[in-house]
Batch of 2 targets.
Target 1
Amino acid sequence: MFLSTPRNYFLSKPQFLDNPHSWIPHIPFAFWLMEMIKPKIMVELGTYSGNSYFAFCQARKALRIPTMCFAVDTWQGDVHVGKYSKEVFQRVNRINQEEFAGFSTLLKMKFDKALDRFSEKSIDVLHIDGTHTLKAARNDFNNWLPKMSQQCIILLHDTKVRRPGFEVWKLMEEIREQYNLLEFPFGEGLAVICAGENPPAPITDLIEHSKNNPEIIQWFEILGNNILWKKEREDLKHQTEKWKQKTALLNSELLKEKRKTKKLVKQLRKKSQS
Ligand SMILES: C[S@@+](CC[C@H](N)C(=O)[O-])C[C@H]1O[C@@H](n2cnc3c(N)ncnc32)[C@H](O)[C@@H]1O
């Protein structure tokens, strides 16, 4: 099968899933990409709870490839995800230290501030998943372009979202003529862009093959949705368990109140008869 790789790591189970779930359907592709192109440097702009970033890190660790990984985020939220609690960063930081410290660095800062940390033409994989207005996404794309290597791949998340303010699709349309690209049109959409002069053969082959063989994209979709639905089922089971416990507690409170009421009614009757 075309997708098959020496370790078939794209069939693996992600270990560090949390809310929000929107990136989960693309995890098999993240695994596949890491195994196939073995980037030297990968950078993510917008990490939040780490579903995408930890997928790249998990593959890097399991496959023992020589990638240095960097996650850039203020971990404060933005106009689209809103402001979130400090616990989000604390969890990401803990997982990073316990599991990936040898090769992964969290850069808790604005994207623009992190630019100086990287040399020109050094990054092989850049995942852009920050603020989703056209202005912000275009800025991120253009600012980081000089840092990209000749073999680089840029990933743009949320290309399918049409909610107000979500305009990554507009950026994708702007650059479609200029670069060889592929869009995974499921989940919230992920564009895979060959932004360098010498793109990796596995990616150009994938783009070429998928033109006449749409089942290749569907395979990634089926694998990704399986992970998503399993996670949603787990979360629902967890919620159901919580509600069951709450219902049991309420039932016992109710029973106590009923007994008290019965006692009171008895006392009242006795009083009215005497
Ligand atoms: C959509 S979330 C990332 C989702 C994540 N990739 C996942 O797998 O679920 C966007 C993140 O980008 C961060 N962000 C947005 N604009 C930023 C900027 N200019 N500098 C630093 N962080 C930014 C926000 O704090 C937020 O955590």
Target 2
Amino acid sequence: MADNPVAAQCDCGAVAGPLGVCVDYYHAILSEEQADPQMYRWHAPVVCAYLLQHPARAHEKYLDGQFRQLQLYVDKGLDALLRVAAHQVARNKHGVRSGYDMAPLAAYEPLPPAGPPRHFRATFSGLPFRDGSFVSDGHLAYGHRIEAIAQATVESWRSIQA
Ligand SMILES: [Zn+2]
């Protein structure tokens, strides 16, 4: 971590918040959602958006699928994404080893070969963290903020395609 978090900038271009840069927020979210099943519903968009905003920390071969999952989420909402995710889990349990079933995601744009974008208009280090929690004002408000980050992520990646 940076010595001076106040002045620190994340590699996604975001300015650090009180908890630090995005990775600090990401770990705090993963920790809090483990004890909160309702908050955990947004786990998939959180992971996809975080990795797409910080692709140096991701496995390159999964990024395209994660970009498509995030587009599905922005397009059709959390329930649609959770259905696809549940289908993936069931499929993996049956020993299919080819990774993502791309069928529900095939309609979405592939990850642009250029990138990553240098700026996202909503970032993890910009999330409010009050009273030691990301959901102190309710899960719906939290969900809207995750959706805004997902939208910003898709928007910035799409903008570098041209
Ligand atoms: Zn960041």
